[in-house]
Amino acid sequence: MPALAPFDQDGIACKSVPLSPRGRGVRGEGDPPSASHNRAPSLTLPLANPAFFSRRELLARTGTGLGMLGLVGLLGDSGGLGSTAVAAESSQAAKRTHFPARAKHVIHIYLNGGPSQIDTFDPKPALARYAGQRLPTGNLSTERPTGSALPSPFRFRRYGQSGLDFSEIFEKTAQHADDICVIRSMYCNTPNHEQSMRLMNTGDERLSRPSFGSWLLYGMGTDNQNLPGFIAMCPGLPVSDVSNWRSSFLPGAFQGTYIDTRQTRVEELIDNIRNPALSQPAQRRQLDLLAALNRRHQQSRAEDSGLEARIESFELAFRMQTAATDALDVSREPKHIQDMYGPGVQARQMLIARRLVERGVRCVQLYHGDVQPWDAHSHLEQNHRELGRQCDQPIAALLTDLKQRGLLDETLVLCGGEFGRTPAVELGQAGTGNPQFGRDHNHWGFSVWMAGGGVKGGMTYGSTDEFGYRAVENRVHVHDLHATMLALLGFDHTRLTYRYAGRDYRLTDVSGTVVRDIIS
Amino acid sequence: MLLIAFQPSTRSVGCRPSCPSRFGCALALAIVLAFGAARPAIAASPEDGVEFFESRIRPLLVKNCYECHSAQAKELQGKLRLDSREALRRGGESGPAVVAGDAPGSLLVRALRYEDHEMPPKGKLPPSAIADVEHWVKMGAPDPRDRPDGEASQLPGKKQRTIDFVAARKHWAYQPMRNPSVPQVKNTAWAHNEVDRFVLAQLEARGLSPAPAADRRTLLRRVSLDLIGLPPTYQEIESFANDDSPRAFEKVVDRLLASPHYGERWGRHWLDVARYADTKDLVLVFGDDAIRPYAYTYRDYVTKAFNADVPYDRFIVDQLAADQTAGKGESWRLAAMGFLTLGRLFDYNLNDEYDDRIDTVSRGLLGMTVACARCHDHKYDAITQADYYGLYGVFASSEEPVDLPLLAEPAATARSADFHKKFAAKEHEFQEHVDHEFREQTEVARRRVGDYLLAVATTRPDPNEDAVFFMSLSPSQLRPQIVGRWRRYVARRSTQSDPVFGAWGDFMRLADADFEQRAPAVAKSWLDRPRGTAAGQLNPVLAEALATADLHSKADVSRLYRDTFLRAYDAKTGNWPAAPGYSARQQLLDILTGPEGPAWFPRSNAYLYMSRVERDRYHHLQLELDRVAVHSAAAPARAMVVNDAANLCSPRIFVRGNPAQPGEPVPRQFLRVLAGDHQQPFAHGSGRLDLARAIASRDNPLTARVFVNRVWMHHFGQPLVQSPSDFGTRATPPTHPELLDYLASTFMADNWSIKNLHRRIVLSAAYQQSSADRPECRAIDPENRLLWRFNRQRLDMEAMRDSMLAVSGRLDRTLFGRPADIVGDPHCRRRTIYGLVDRQHLPGFHRAFDFANPDQSAERRPQTTVPQQALFAMNSPFMLEQAQSLAASPPVSGKLSPPDRVESLYEIVLGRRPDEAETELALRFVNAAQADSSLPHAPQVKLDPWAQYAQMLLASNEFTFVD
After folding, report:
1. Which letter does DSSP use for residue B408 in this model?
2. CB contact under 8 A, B23 and A511
3. Burial (CB count <10 Å: 0-12, 13-18, 19+), residue A88
4. Strands (E), A132-229
5. What pLDDT does residue B878 have?
6. What whole-number distance in Å separates Cα of residue A13 and Cα of residue B174?
7. What is the pLDDT of residues A214-246, one digit of tens each?
8. Nearest-5° angle of CA B50, CA B55, CA B57?
9. Which residue of B has its CA nearest to A504?
């Protein structure tokens, strides 16, 4: 019986496994050849954990899409899982995508509820000519009946050298005009929140599909093993709630970690992040004991890397307790930074987002608020003005902050909602016929903007018609947006696939065209 | 046809990347109606026309359209080709692309104008280009292309794939079951039973040998966790280790299979396949409101069925058709139908619900990915759209009743009486609302026939008619779905021979400008026809109205038809013009009120036609009804059944999966590759029972194979076929094809007994092998596909939590019942299978521990190692509670000496005694922890050192993995 390592001694040194990236034929013999056989391996493991998938699963799942072969080589032929040494290697492999990634992180500022394009980023002076009258081109059908033209109550100005138009509610964000690309020709399928939220986040309106962030984790892994790689923040819950960040058929750990930012204490933000009973040294002692027990158990099972992976996961979790607490604690920021973001939950979310991205978190979503705050069926002016007041300064601060830290180049910032709003006034709930200065949902045309991460700044792309109803020029469907974002992140969206239930799935389903013109 | 087109469109459903429907259903939105006038072609010589085509139109088509709409298209879109004159005029799925002379009525022009289709999708063409096309169509669309550009004609698309069923049936999984002969092996001493000979034959063929038998302690832990999901006690281990009888292991297996905990363990495996969840996935419905009050009765049925060893074929029939087969006194079987009804609700989109049922039944029971054939024939397997819609018809012919059958007689207590009063009132209110709205909406839909026809006559199709659900409608608005159906219906019947809508078609083809002038001639041409209801005649009721009509506009035509229909509808008696055979009035009534007519919809779909206020009320009442049941302990168990609908669905194939594009009719029937090329349609009602019997048949080559593979997977940690829910041509073939057939055929011969199947497997020497590594074997077969050892397995979520509860002496062994809060309540001691499965808000605990995604039928769980699992073990209130309870339990705390305590903990948690070194490690830890807590500035440690120690035993790999 070998002597036991005492509980307070360092763990047994991790055995290392020789790394041999080889492209063995790993698919069934009858399978069609993989398009990526000759490409560099491109997939790494989420949380950089070699045991995240078993080797078998990797082989079974990753289809012909990604170049998994090298990774399989990395994991070795141990009959199961990789080892610690592999973990280090594969976290570097995180950067190996289909082609060089322009962006390494995504921050999605989600103005949920459907902000009005004609009151924010897509000025339509022609509407004023028809104020109170029917539009000559007629109204398009949306969820509710609509009436006459409702011009924007907001003042627009041109900003930056590029002269991009912003309405007054985003006048601070507008200071970054030259870094921003506004896509004015977005469109989607359905004027309903639930479906359009899911489309924007998962590429499908109703079925259970992995979200953008989940796909990204699947494809890229994360740079920080001590934090979840995909975090979705909202003060409350947006419509369609978890389906906006779910992993669906991808493993549960790819799911976005949801944080209710109405809470401020870290224990309320991440499950089991803190031990209620033990001090850190006491817990360290406990984990040393555990390591000793596990090493002993492992001695006669040395070939099983699943055991090693679990041992490592406790060390990772121990570090994560500190790292997560630190990342979410905005009070550690200097005062001038806090002041720049300003007060309120929007500011706190944006600041947390920056802290997360800085620490290597792959994808961060920030929903503006509970249910659908931007859903201005009535009194749009007051609604949009107030919401703008809440988020304009924090958004501007976030862009400034990312830029001054050199993070904007590698961080793709996306801002927008699930659809836009009608240029014609809404005739009131259920056709009561009483217009209340609101706009109905509009899936025919809307705007989103992107900045950083390889996007051309100071430009608009595409346009809506004269009144801002329908995208007409260089139209960009949500699938196209996804394809473009994945391209910026280094992926060919047609090759980021996952085999499930007999099919190779992808974020863009059977659609998606990359909008090359907005890539710098 | 409209019987099945009652649901608004699904848009494009998900599809593999190689799917041809690049633009989803966008192309398939509208039916072409030639609204514009058939003007005479603009005077031009034929040469001018061709010249114009060659210089302006052909280049435009080549540049902007051919990529998707020509013989050169990689994947032809919408079955539309624009590369020959003939193809252009014939058109595609949406109808003719060009009506010569009629620019506004030509789909091509409207698509370019982005009026209904939006082509090209990348962006609208410049106005000048569109004007050119309009001009060209007005010229009569001169087109010299009598052969397709590029290559010889090969219509309609070159990528048409036909399935060769004879060849397809040669695929291993569709081959009839064999009863393979048991192979000869060299090492005859090793084999316990036939299973072993199949395993050994392959090992020997590769120069491998089986592992030595596992020791008895290991074996007992393995088989206990495997069969009942709970570890053996130390005493059980000792007694088994000391039982010399040759039947010792058999006795253990019999004991475990007889335990009620067996059904909890294996029932849970089935619930993965059944995508079981307790909640509704609705928007903005949270907490208790999301709970389906009777979902648990399905979970309990499954547990009972496994415990009772219900034969698997009966288990299938129960789940698909217990409403038709449960005998007297067998109402418990009705709960089995939750298999069909517990899926997601998809925002109440019925087409998706049926799809989910098709998917769960086909992948879950047959290992066939039938759902791939929703929009097109399967790309790899012999599954056609006709197969899909054959099954669609079965599920669309089945309805969930409001009044679900009771599973037990309610108790006769005062509380219960109070509940029933409340429940009955809510149920009544809900039922009333549905009945009222159904009557009302049906009546309004009929009575407003004139408004609908006016919309058809004077407006262009609106995509919302097909594509959008959840319109917030006011009571007075026309129902977009019905408008769309009228359009399609009228378009289909506007033929020269139709006795009702033939005249309509002729009127509508007139130009608005000279309508007044030309209408009398059209009227006369119809009035000249013989009266009657047959093709080529004119309906006499319509004729009477037409004879006196004064038509100034197309709107007048719609009024003429309105009056005609309403006359037929309103008149109770009266003198009706005679028509031989089919009565003239009946012909009109069939259109207005019949199930093939545009105004018809089934009662179950009434909510889709309600105005916003009424629909909100509908959902509210439904929620309240469930709420009463969820919140009352007196609510009796009910079964979530479906019954055959009063009006059965005669399915049609939805072109590209789009319900707004119904195509060929198909019978309700089984899958052709299994049923043969000359199968009979299902004969009984919805066909659910026929379907169940076709699946649960000994002649079905898949059913038994798929199931035994699942069972094998749970025993060995690896299946024989790597994709347990996909036995199609893309699946990796079985590692042991003969063993698979042996297991499947003996399973069926043994009356589909699942418990005997377990016996056959776990009594084999292969199952009882050691899991120890042998590098020489690993070099040959690194993944242990050939089973040269047993696979070490990690406890799944349920077995882990249940084992912790068991060893800490806290497990509540109550069977069955409503879902328990195992996540929010750290004190909850129920087995994990009874925990609430919240589909929409799957808790972090479930996600971290690889719980099967309950959105869809799950073939196997992922296995991940993530720090969230470790955080749970380190910090969760549940773990701390188990640790404290364990340390404080009498067998531990009652021991006076610390080494005895260590020994006791080892026996309880790990089922063995510690060695000296382990004891020493434990004591050093406990001493250090105690010393620490006595320091003057000690941290606030609230966990007893022994509990801290116990927690790490529970967290250890030895506890978590099974050798």
Report:
1. S
2. yes
3. middle
4. 146-149, 156-159, 164-167, 180-187
5. 95
6. 52
7. 999 999 988 887 888 999 999 988 988 888 998
8. 80
9. B16
Q: Cα–Cα distance between B520 and B526 in angstroms, integer?
A: 10
- Distance, in Å, from the CA atom of A260 to the CA atom of A134, rounded to the nearest integer, reads 43
- The reply to whether omega before B819 is within 30° of 0 (cis) is no
Residues of B in contact with A275 (CB under 8 A): 874-875
Name the β-bridge partners of B213.
B769
- Only one residue has tokens 């031989």, namely B580
- Cross-strand pairs, A158: A165
pLDDT at position B161: 64
Phi, psi dihedral angles at A100 (to 5 degrees): -55, 130
The pLDDT score that the predictor gives to residue B112 is 87
Q: What is the mean pLDDT of residues A153-182?
A: 97
Query: Who's near B68: CB < 8 A, 6+ residues apart?
Result: B22, B23, B75, B76, B77
Task: Output phi, psi for B844, to 5 deg.
Answer: -55, -35
In the numeric block, the tokens 């008149």 are attached to: B571
User: Whole-model pTM?
Assistant: 0.80
Reported ipTM: the value is 0.81
Answer whether B373 touches A (CB < 8 Å). no
Distance between first and last Cα of chain B: 59
Angstrom distance (rounded) from CA B147 to CA B85: 8
Residues of A in contact with B24 (CB under 8 A): 510-511
pLDDT at B35: 29
What is the average per-residue pLDDT within A107-135? 96
- Do B785 and B716 touch, CB atoms closer than 8 A? no
Q: pLDDT at position A162, please? A: 97
pLDDT score for B335:
98
> In the structure encoding, which two tokens stand for residue A157, read together?
């100005």
Residues of chain A numbered 71-90 and touching chain B (CB < 8 Å)? 77-79, 81
Q: Which of A297, A309, A513 sits opposite B958 (nearest CB)?
A: A297
> Do residues A518 and A484 touch, judged by C-beta distance below 8 A?
yes
Are A4 and B122 inside 8 Å of each other by CB?
Answer: no
What tokens does B269 get?
A: 């495996």
Cβ contact B796:B850 at 8 Å = yes
Are A106 and A216 contacting, i.e. CB atoms less than 8 angstroms apart?
yes
Q: Using alpha carbons, select from A194, A279, A269, A286 the residue that is nearest to residue A239.
A: A194
- Cross-strand bridge partners of residue A415: A109, A449
Bigger pLDDT: A372 vs B16: A372
Residues of chain B with pLDDT under 50: 1-44, 149-159
Written in H, E and C, the secondary structure of B714-775 is: HHHCCCCCCCCCCCCCCCCCCCCHHHHHHHHHHHHHCCCCHHHHHHHHHCCCCCCECCCCCH
Asked if residue A97 has pLDDT above 90, the reply is no
**Hey, what amino acid is at A485?**
M
CB contact under 8 Å between B848 and A271, yes or no, is yes
Q: What per-residue string of b and e applies to A129-140 under the rule 16 or more CB within 10 Å gives b?
A: ebeeeebeeebb
Residue of B442, B484, B441 whose CA lies nearest to B593 = B442
What are the residues facing B413 on neighbouring strands? none
- What are the residues whose beta carbons fall under 8 Å from the beta carbon of B318, sequence distance 6 or more? B301, B305, B310, B325, B326, B333, B336, B337
Here the tokens at position B775 are 């590098």
Residue with tokens 């309120």: A344
Residue B272 contacts residue B858 (beta carbons within 8 Å): yes
Residues A478-494 as b/e (b if ≥16 CB within 10 A, e otherwise) read: bbbbbbbbbbbbbbbbb
Helix (H, G, I), strand (E, B) or coil at A485: helix
Can you tell me whether residue B301 is helix, strand or coil?
helix
Average pLDDT over residues A256-276: 83
Q: How many helices and strands in chain A, by DSSP H and E? A: 13, 18
